[in-house]
Amino acid sequence: MHRNRDHPSIDDAQLKLEIIRAEVEAMTLMFNGMPLPPVTISIGVSDTLGGDAEALLKQADERLYHAKRTGRNRVVTRIEHRANVEEGMAETTAVPSMPASPLGGP
User: Radius of gyration of the chain from Cα atoms?
Assistant: First the structure.
């Protein structure tokens, strides 16, 4: 992965956002002295380089909703499309960039 301080890669973004995702998941929030149910976040990351703002937001939005549809509590940096020959329909899956959380979580 090529790292450039002026132009971070999508892998750099994935790493930082995965740390944030894991930290949010590890938080214990309290209300009136009682712990609230766990909070998680889903994040869609866009990598449109040199594109317009509308294309950038559209790609990030598609990845965010894909993260929510495929299990939530994840960072999605790209979506892989495969044809499902038996069903005669397209199958879409999130492609994780990292096998596990850098903080040791799922």
Answer: 16
Query: What region does 91 belong to: left with phi over 0, alpha with psi -120 to 50, or beta?
Result: beta
Q: Residue 43 has what DSSP assignment?
A: E
Q: What sign does the CA torsion over 14, 16, 22, 25 have?
A: negative
Whole-model pTM: value is 0.68
**Digit-coded pLDDT (tens) for 59-91:** 999 999 999 999 899 999 998 776 654 554 444
Are 50 and 71 in contact by the 8 Å Cβ rule? The answer is no
The Cα-based distances of 94 to 31, 33, 74, 101 in angstroms read 34, 38, 9, 16
